Every structure is written in structure tokens, then in C-alpha cells.
Amino acid sequence: MSSEAEGGRSAQLKHTGLRPGWTTGACATAATTAAYTALLTGDFPDPVTIALPKGQTPSFALAAEELTDSYAMAGIVKDAGDDPDVTHGALVRATVRRLPAGAGVVFRAGPGVGTVTRPGLPLPVGEPAVNPVPRQMMRDHVARVAGRYGGSGDVEITVSVDDGEEIARSTWNPRLGILGGLSILGTTGIVVPYSCSAWIDSIRRGVDVARAAGRTHVAGCTGSTSERTVVAEYGLPEDALLDMGDFAGAVLKYVRRHPVDRLTVCGGFAKLSKLAAGHLDLHSARSQVDKGFLARLARRGGADEGLATEVADANTGLAALQLCQAAGVPLGDLVATAARDEALAVLRGAPVAVDVICIDRAGTVVGRSSVA
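Predicted structure:
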């Protein structure tokens, strides 16, 4: 297939001409790898190369390093590419100390990295705001370094971000109960840049490529985890996958004018709750999870007033979902159905059957609609 006929996420990114960058999780992993290597060998690898979850092997130049008898520290400057990310240019540091055999890998929040203080996030209260995928990346790289240089792999990793507490004021972290700084994020290690006009144009090109290839079923996905989910559910080929990001409206409006037989919309529960509530731009700067709306859906699903009040007061959409799951209220299915109905309204009678799948951060399906 020629480059002009390519489809899927990688082709969309290539079409935009935008330069991707690296997540804070990738930077923290690179810093951890360099620091632990220095702790075991006495030398910092510079540049330091890591392996990302999808197999890419980027290299990072060190911006800071320090080695003592008890610890090693390395720092990486985050490059967010062409994405307007508030953490672009931030210095992400990892300080690695040896622990007794059997202690495993322990994470600490250093200056500029937040601590979780409220439920509803993918980490327990009291934990440093280093998300699950970056934690696993760091564990994997510690194990590799230990295997190569004869270490035990039992270490304490303190992640810090210079000026992170100040930068975090420009994020949703304080409102979510992440206090003291930023979160260390990322599921692929790569920041996909989203220029509204460029990315919407790439969505349209993705639909055109899918139709030209004879695809009758396409999927609009909010990210790589939802892409994996629809591939597992339906076996869709790459050129049937539309990386819609936050631009649900762009997918729906273009498919309205250029129909396919079936459209699956798949994404995180919180994002798709915004679509269910009538938002077509799902970016956190332009729409928020309406927990009052979720409470009304919960009542429709059998929640009593006490549970509905808890849902309305929940810290996050995930916390609201967990409350309803514990009570046997199918909030995930209700959100998926409401999102499907909103999608159908935008399609305005176009001959497109729609279904919606809601997932959690691990990619587990937590709600789905029927096809209509």
C-alpha cells in the first residue's frame, strides 16, 4: 500500500506534519535508567536509550546528573514536540537509592510531583502521582539494568519536576486532589500533538482512506488503549481505526456527510460521559465531566437518592462509576447508551449504525450500548 493510501493512527500523525514528543512518564523512565546504571557502574549513559510500550527506542540527552555513594540522580528535559503541553521544557528528575534485597521498587514523590489525596484516581490515596504505566516502565527498565550490571533491582525511585508545583496550578491536579505538583503520565510514552485544524483534517483523511479501502465498519477511538479494545472486540484492520482524540464532533460530522455502514465510538468512561452530556469536544480545557448529569443517569438506572448524591459529589468520573458498580447500578452502560444517542443526533439520520464502548484506564470494558 502506498503512503498516500495509508490509514490508521500513524498515518494520521504523519499527515498532520506535527512533531510528536515524549511524556513525563517516558522522561522519568529515561532518568531512572540513567541513574540506576550510574549507581551500579559509576558512569551515566548519555544519551540514555529506553524501550517504549509499542517498541520504539528513543534516546534522551541528560540535562542533570549527580552521583554519590548512596544515590544517583539524572534529569531529562521534557520535549512535548508540537503539542501545547504545559510541561514542555520541564526538567524531570529521578533519584535512585538502593534498598535491601526483597524490597522491590518503591516510588516516592519528590519536589514538584503530586500526591494523591482523594479517591477516584488509578492510584490509592497517599501514593505519589506516578501513574500505573510509567511505574511499570520504570520497573521494567530497573530490572533490565539490574540484569545487565548485576544489581538486585531493589530500589527507591524519587521522581521530581523542577517548578512542578507551580506548573500544576495550570492543570486539573489541584481540583482532583493531587496536591504538591504534577502527575507523571503516559500510556505509550509518546505525546501525540493535537492542532485542532491539522488533526480534524487527518480524521477526514482517515475516513476517506477507510471508505476507499471498502471498510464498512470503522471505529473512532480516543487513544491507543481504546484502539486495542476495538481491535480485540471486532478485529478491525488499522485503516478502519480513526484516532479521533478529543474531536468526537469532527468524526460524527464527517461521517454524516461520508457515511459508512457502522461506526463504533470507543474511549474512556469519563471522556465519553462528556459526549453523552452533549459535548463534541472532549478536551479537558473545553469540557468537563458533569457529575450532576451522571447522578441523573444513575437515578435512571435504579440508584437511590443517597447514591445519586454520592455520584454528584464524586471526585472524578471514575469514582462515580466505581460507586455505581459497587451498588449494581449500570452507569457505564447508561453513559454508553446516552453517548450513542448523542452521536445519532449529530448524524441526523445518516445511514450509519452506531455503538459505543466505554473503557477504564486499563482497557477493561465498563459499559457498552447496543447498535442503533
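Summary: DSSP finds 13 helices and 18 strands in the chain.
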